Amino acid sequence: MTKTLRSFPIDAVRQQFPALKRTYQGKSAVYLDGPGGSQVVKSSMDAIYAYMANGGANLHGSFPSSRETEATIAEARESVAQLFGAKSNEVVFGANMTTITFAIARALGRQWQAGDELVISELDHRANVDPWLSIAEDRGMTVRWLRVHPDSLTLELEDLDDIITPRTKLVAVGLASNAVGTINDVPTIASKAREVGAIMAVDAVHATPHFFVDRDQLGADLLLCSAYKFFGPHIGIAVIREELFESLLPYKLAPAPHYLPDKLETGTQNHEGIAGIKPAVQFIACLGQGETLREQFRSGFELIESYENALAEKMRNALQAIPEVTLYQAAPEVPKTPTIAFRIAGISPQEVCQRMADDHAVFVADGDFYAMTLADKLGINQDGGWIRAGLAPYNTEEEIDRFIQGIQEIVHTLR
After folding, report:
1. Nearest to 371 by CA among 174, 151, 103
2. Residue 329 contacts by C-beta under 8 Å, 6 or more apart in sequence?
3. Torsional sign, CA 335, 340, 344, 350
4. Which domains does the chain have, with CATH numbers?
5. 315: Cβ contacts below 8 Å, ≥ 6 apart
């Protein structure tokens, strides 16, 4: 672990994040709230400012600033396409992942009818649940659930053949749990969906910042993520397989484009935010090596993944050594993101987070994090949910030590 930590260019990484200079209560701020949104790389901020300072414009104009806006959007699409192994005309931008998913659900629902079936997951963020539940209710569809085992915190896939049937129109599963970090076996689920001709919708919002995501390797027809989770601005992203995208009938204004990918992008987009996507993606690539951008992404993510997992291992080991702490995580052999959910006996999650911020300038979050179904099933929603600490490549071993010290001090006051 020490070798892994030492080989990571942490100083060079931290220099690219202005927010890390912040102090709170006389101490440097420690951001362990990455699962709720990462800090933004400076190159992304610079691109947003440059776009606005140079004169923004709407699309399809016969003047330079309009053409520049179109070029900015095209470059952002290509960057996202390269990131996931897709085509640029399969990339859609929107207000956020939730809004885009509702729009896609409504478009798909126009082709569904009573008696058709949807499959959703108990482990998921509700953004990959409620849009599908809503359209199922509207159309009189049957909903089937992939259950999560409350002890293993993994999806139960033994009955997959009974849950995904010839009547299944769509299967929606998260690639990784934003609450407890479990990485799901999406390729196995997608393979079964493909057998019955169902659409595979994958929520990759939480996964994208932490490891290399290949759309085709997953078997995803619809891949969803958000740039603000991987060092960029608040922009939602959908990657829709071209054949599926062509068949979509989105709700839109009459004069709006009918071609890909614009037909799903209703209204004027956040052009300045879109300008910040390419630099955020390039930050990841710059950490890697290789002749192609995809190779750079892969090796960059391998470096990020090994570094974050080394820090997470130290954090988990320290928390496990404290009797008052209950960790919510899958078994060691189950792959996980560096996202750690826990509770401390005798104190509410909110109070822990408040004391960590006020006494140690360590920012961790509390609640159910929209993984409401899982929190309800574990019986913790009625008293504050989890405390969640999540790592990013700009976090340091010293920051983890401060986190551990803070938790230990809180526990000591309870004894």
Report:
1. 174
2. 153, 180, 181, 182, 316, 336, 340, 341
3. negative
4. 10-40+292-413 (3.90.1150.10), 45-284 (3.40.640.10)
5. 340, 389, 391, 400, 403, 404
Query: Shortest CA distance to 366 belongs to which of 378, 379, 381?
Result: 381
Helix (H, G, I), strand (E, B) or coil at 272: helix
Residue 373 banded pLDDT, cuts 50, 70, 90? very high
Lookup result for tokens 């709170």: 24
pLDDT of residue 201: 98
Tokens of 29: 């701020």
- Report the C-alpha gap between 118 and 100 in whole angstroms: 18
- Residue 178 contacts residue 133 (beta carbons within 8 Å): no
Instruction: Give the tens place of pLDDT for each residue, 206-250.
Output: 999 999 999 999 999 999 999 999 999 999 999 999 999 999 999
pLDDT attached to residue 394? 98
Count other C-beta atoms under 10 Å from residue 312's C-beta: 23
| Tokens found for residue 227 | 């740039």
pLDDT tens digits along 103-128? 999 999 999 999 999 999 999 999 99
Q: pLDDT value at position 5?
A: 84
Q: What is the pTM of this model?
A: 0.97
